[in-house]
Fold this sequence. Notes:
By secondary structure, the chain is an all-alpha fold. Helix content is 82%, strand content 0%.
Amino acid sequence: MNIVIGILFIILTIAVYYGMKCLYKRFPHPLLVPIATSTIIIVPFLLFSQISYHTYMIGGNWIDELLGPAVVSFAIPLYEQRKIVRENIVNILTSVFIGALIGIVSGLLLGKIFHIDKMLALSLAAKSVTTPVAMDLTEIIGGTPALAAVYVILAGIFGAIFGPMLLRMLKVKRSLSIGLGFGTAAHGIGTAKVIEYGKLEGAVSSVSMTLSAIFTSILCPIIVSIML
Length: 228
């Protein structure tokens, strides 16, 4: 029975995402990014039909298992663009370090400005890195891993939606800069989005995503101990 349920939810998820991807190709507006519109459809559907998250994840877990190979596949454009990445390694390291620092500080500052609970603020600190790293890191500093996962997903979705608008507003056109911005601030979701720009942007974004996770893991406990 569980296998049947799992297959049904896999089909549902793929069908919704495919439909939203077709919509995005027809109307390529940032607000119609497939990962955002698919979520907007699936979540209300589960709520109104009173299907629990646990039940949905019988099939969802199968899709989740593909996340690892999908992330590894980012190494292909990285390998193809390895020469350019090597030539700009100092700029990449410096930019990602500063971006990771701002990502941590901004989350903690938001908590202070809006006087939110300390637990919530701690869960915001690692919002700009990939989910597994953010959850483990949040547990170490005393936050709530489940909340951190939500913040990470939101950061990725908002980065994919509003990142292109922000780049246009700031007149950022260099491939290196675009890749650095998406990878550092919007992790895997941002990297998936930035591949639309080109292979170089995707390669730099995948490097930035990895470096951001490393820098955040080192900096986060230190900054939290200073600011909170």
